[in-house]
Amino acid sequence: MDSGYLLSPLMLIINTAFDLYILLVLLRFLLQMLRADFYNPVSQFIVRLTTPPLRLLRRFIPSVAGQDAASIVLCLLLIYAKFVLMRLLEIPAVNIGSVMAPIGAASYGGLAVLCIADLIALVLTVFLVAVIIQVIISWVSPGQYNPVIGLVNKLAEPVLRPIRKFIPPMGGIDLTPLFASLLLLVAKMLIVPPIIYLGSF
Q: Are 163 and 176 in contact (CB under 8 A)?
C-alpha cells in the first residue's frame, strides 16, 4: 500500500489540531486587545483552553505596550512546530494565504519567517470571516444577541469603523462590509507573498 494512503489523513489530523489551537490563542489575543467581554461564555471557554501554556510563557515574556506578547509568541511557536513536524513527514509545501510555501526547502530560519506569514494570513482571515458573519447575521436575525454575535461584532468593528467614515450608507444599504472584505483580501495578496518569498531560502 502506498505511504501516501496514510499520510493524507495524518496530515488532516495534524493540521486540524494545530490550526484550531492556534486560532484559539490568536482569538484570545485579539479579544483582549479589543477589550471584548471577558465574562462572555465563549471568552471564558477560550481562556480556559489557552491559559496553561500562556501561564508558563508569561514567566519569560512580558507584555508589550499593554498587549499580551506571550499569546503571539505561542502562536508562532505552534506554527513553527507544525511546520517542523510536516517537514519530518516529508511534506514539501503548505498553503499560506493561497500561496504555496516550500517548507521542505526552506532553512530553519526561513521557517520562522514563513510562520510570520502564516500568522498574518490568519489574522486577516479572522477579520474577514468576522465581517462576513456579521453581514449574514444582519440579514438572518437582525437585532438579536448571543455570546457569539457579541464577539463577532467586536472583531468586525475595528475593520468597519474606519471605512464608515468615508463610505456612508447609500439608500439604506451599508456597503462598508463589501469594501472591508475587498481591502482585507487585497492586504493578504500584497503582504503575505513577499514574506513567503523571503522565507523560502
A: yes
